[in-house]
Amino acid sequence: MKQEKIILTGDRPTGKLHIGHYVGSLRRRVELQNSGLYDKIFIFEADGQALTDNIDNPEKVRQNVIEVALDYLACGIDPAKSTIFIQSQIPELCELTFYFMDLVTVSRLQRNPTVKTEIQMRNFETSIPVGFFTYPISQAADITAFKATTVPVGEDQEPMLEQAREIVRRFNHIYGETLVEPNILLPENAACLRLPGTDGKAKMSKSLGNCIYLSDSADEVEKKVKSMYTDPNHIKVTDPGQIEGNTVFTYLDAFSKPEHFERYLPEYQSLDELKAHYQRGGLGDMKVKKLLAAIMQEELEPIRNRRKEFEKDIPAVCEMLRQGCEVAREAAAQTLSEVRRAMKINYFDDDSFVAEQTARFAAE
Ligand code: TRP
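Above: inputs. Below: predicted complex with tryptophan.
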């Protein structure tokens, strides 16, 4: 049988999605969804994973499950083509995690670079919740339960994918070819790998207040772009400016297309020309910011409008999620039945266990 091409990816519902999510992954997901190259697409909200470091704030996760679903729909993820579901509603994922735990050592988890930095970020050093520590294992279950071949995520997820691949190899080596080794699919454009915050800090994060959200109004987007971090030494228009670490240019790298120049700044042929002028001196920040604002509004306006439409019928969004969970659960249940068979714990699937054990005792 030809191997199916299956996409799986997801987000933690801890906040509304921002343009970092958009250029780093959502935009690509929609393209992949519409490419027709994939047999199945699963997109899910990792609420269980979100709870691993928000255990005392279940309300936050509950609210954001709907916000994130709205962001998905607004970006063009289409429930007719992609199954959208919620992690906690698929108990098979817990079961698979439980079996996978025997295939991973504590020291291997400790070496996972993403876990390492996250532990530092959260000051968990002396009191790491076990569930948090082991979430790479549960993430491997998320991926393999759906036999995903392709996982489109940002580069911060690379260690998770590596760990998932190791688990699959170990499982298949011990129990026979059962699970599928997933491949990571990273953004093509370097600026999209990790979009900095509007203040120039490396990461967009809610707590730093440096995000542009997909649900932000046109005015908010305008304001945020206008106050963006640029080159602090570019004071007079005539001063030569720096492109590197200049947030406005990084965003242009992520958002601009050649046709935008014809439309908004016909005196430049391309982003390279604009950059060269900035570096030479003689190009003011405001002009560049105006261009960026125009481009971003063009891209974000349809998303914002679609989001408003979906917000009008929240019961329909909930029903879409419920149905997605049903479809996802069926897929995961199929894999789990294969996993149990491979692990020889499928005692009551058929009569073979009874027959084989009866024969064993009869022979004694
Ligand atoms: N860890 C991912 C994030 O923080 C979310 C996630 C959980 C995920 N399980 C996944 C992504 C499986 C891809 C595949 O964004």
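The longest helix spans residues 314-342.
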